[in-house]
Amino acid sequence: MYLLPKTVTDKLDKQRRTFFWQGNGLKRKYHLVKWETICQSKEKGGLGIKGIRRMNIGLLCKWWWKLDNEKGLWQDIVKAKYFRGGVLRRKVKVNNGKKALFWEDPWLNDKPLCTTAPVLYDLCNEKFITVYQVLSASGQLTFRHWLPPILFEMCMKILEDVYSNDFDNVADPVTWKWCKDGSFSTKSVYNHLASGDVGVKFTHIWKAKLPYKIKIFCWLVEEGAILTKDNMVKRNWPGDPTCCFCHESETINHLFFQCAVAKVIWGIDIQQYRSWMSTWLPGGSPVYIFCLAAVCWAIWKRRNKACFENKKLKHPAEIIIHACALMSYWAGLYGAEMQSKIMEGVKTVLLGAVYVVNLEARLGSPKTAGDSDPEYSTSEAATD
Ligand SMILES: [Zn+2]
């Protein structure tokens, strides 16, 4: 029941960070995105992993709330020893004023008097006095020293407002300010602490029907954080920064969209499935990310194979065939109707890709893709 020192939260975060990027493996891996960004909510561009410090504060508030609102032995002991007034952001509706703290609770206005009249609060001897106690003493507050006229007037004005308030002889209901229904939740504290975060939403990714791993991949691509060679160079990697498919520098934009290979892929693909999308999709939007992710992931996997296993790409259609296999596999995430539409679309694209491959083979250059490579065998998608 205490605030963890920053050194402790930093150590815990370091372990969580390492686990996030390299799992249980001992091999050091690059941390592609700042931990602070990852800990932001998905609405603010992060992954919604909880920040330890904010959780710590939220849970502390929960204890504090219990202490203030539940009766019991431990509450009595802790109150007697430590409790010196309310600093919780609670909302009190004043009836008899026995619960509401005169200075500390926001009962008269939206903000508590300790923040709207800080000098008076500072000088007052009774900082944690209840509203009821103020009324019982006929508004006689005592101060550390004599009040200059301006402060005296301010004090009179406050008391005037106090006496114009409607009081009632029943208990004050206490509610939690940051929850609509007035009940306490740790989440509300956490969200309040995170309300200042800024970032871009990636709702289109999180809402898409894709395996979680692929969503993270898309998020990294959009964050500009995937380890293309330009990003590796920024991390002092000494290797060759040129693209595995051509001889230009490899950047995210180059690899996925500007590379000659990517242009062929999008060329074939877009021709084929533009008509496919427009015939069966209103706006094509839900499947747009789905297809984009499949093609980008297929490019990425093939690029890794070329970079790390030295397996040269024979024809860009290899990548399209792989993307088709991925789409027919991921289509299972949709309902039956959409699934069959996707399968139909995949079939069209696949036919186009196979046609191109065969044509190239007949012309004799380059060699047929996919015939000797089991990973690109898409018999289930092709024969369906
Ligand atoms: Zn290239």
Automatic annotation (TrEMBL):
Keywords: Membrane, Transmembrane, Transmembrane helix. Residues 365-384 are annotated as: Disordered. The keyword DNA-binding does not apply. InterPro entries: RVT-Znf. The chain crosses the membrane at residues 280-299. The keyword Transmembrane helix applies. This is Reverse transcriptase zinc-binding domain-containing protein. Pfam families: zf-RVT. It comes from the Eukaryota. Residues 184-266 form the Reverse transcriptase zinc-binding domain. Residues 375-384 have a biased composition (Polar residues).
